[in-house]
Write a structure and sequence with these properties.
By secondary structure, the chain is α/β, with parallel strands linked by helices. It has eleven helices and 14 strands. It starts with a helix and ends in an 11-residue tail after the last helix.
Length: about 325
């Protein structure tokens, strides 16, 4: 079943970004998507919160780099003097409506892989739940943040927001520009005109671009850390496999190739939890996974596993804008949707 799902997802994604003609068969369904989007925007009224909310989201499906951006943004706002809290849907977890406070030791199967990674890396309170407004309310009651970051939630219209950031992939951009399922868009491309900021992974404009820094490799079993620079020499003669369940795995594979590594590439569906069976079938001396994959490896003691640690920085001009808008005692009124 998983094999067929992987093939279907790859075929669909390739069609979105290579302009496949057969996708016109899905045009009637995309019309329905457009009607639903417009209906929800007309009828759903945002609630109110006493704390400003910054939404970091996307209008395309698949990975664009929102999680590293959210972590970097949280760290920067803490430096500015804010008490930051984060809310997330908890996609991939079983928490449901929630809300549920994410602990560093929470199982990813309960709270979701991305919220758990954010809680571990950003070191700020994280609350998950399908109802993001309820999650934000619980976060305020428990931790009294001065600003809330929403992990995704651009389309969660009941959640009020004071600032919207959309994250795009610099190579894929908007694909064929069509709404789901004919294309990768959750909302029409014109939605970008109404957001406050657009960040582009591997972009060229310094006001919108962000790039990954490869910090190094951490051995999951011993916590030994190896620098990214020179890793090809360290692992010379070893069979290296790159294994991941990312929405856009090519970014991961390319990062390893850029370090001079020749890797076997193994891509699973987005948010897939790697199992001992998955790893047992891989003939390699070294298995490299992402941090997002690593938080879901509870109970797996394969000593071949190394974790690629990355970070990013958001543009300084964005931080200045946020600092000017939110470094005040009281929240400004929520933006109109």
């Amino acid at each position: 079943m998983m094999v067929w799902r992987q093939r279907f997802e790859r075929c669909l994604t390739r069609g979105w970004y290579e302009g496949a003609g057969w996708l016109w068969l899905a045009w009637p369904l995309s019309l329905i998507t457009g009607l639903v989007v417009r209906w929800r925007r007309y009828w759903v009224t945002p609630a109110s919160l006493p704390v400003p909310v910054v939404v970091v989201g996307g209008i395309t499906v698949g990975g664009t780099g929102k999680t590293p951006v959210l972590i970097a943004l949280a760290e920067a706002l803490v430096v500015q003097g804010h008490k930051v809290g984060i809310i997330s849907r908890g996609y991939g977890g079983t928490v449901g409506e929630g809300p549920c406070i994410v602990q560093r030791s929470s199982p990813a199967a309960l709270v979701g892989d991305e919220p758990l990674l954010i809680a571990q890396r950003a070191n700020v309170p994280v609350v998950v739940g399908k109802n993001r407004y309820a999650a934000a309310t619980a976060l305020i009651e428990a931790f009294a943040p001065t600003i809330i970051l929403s992990d995704d939630g651009l389309q969660h219209l009941k959640l009020p927001r004071n600032f919207e950031i959309v994250v795009l992939d610099g190579e894929r951009r908007l694909g064929n520009g069509r709404l789901l399922p004919m294309g990768p868009l959750r909302e029409p491309a014109a939605r970008l005109d109404s957001v406050d900021w657009v960040l582009v992974r591997n972009g060229e404009n310094e006001e919108s671009a962000f790039h990954y820094q490869l910090e190094g490799f951490e051995h999951r079993h011993s916590a030994q850390v190896l620098a990214a620079e020179g890793i090809a020499k360290q692992w010379q003669g070893l069979r290296v496999a790159a294994v991941t369940g990312l929405g856009q795995p090519d970014q991961f594979f390319s990062a390893l190739n850029s370090l001079g590594l020749t890797v076997q590439s193994h891509a699973f569906p987005d948010h897939h939890s790697l199992t001992e069976v998955d790893l047992a079938t891989i003939a390699a001396d070294v298995i490299v996974v992402t941090e997002k994959d690593a938080v879901k490896l509870c109970g797996i003691n394969d000593e071949r596993i190394w974790i690629l640690v990355i970070s990013t920085k958001v543009p300084k001009v964005l931080l200045r804008r946020l600092g000017a808008q939110f470094n005040q005692a009281e929240a400004v009124p929520c933006s109109t949707l």
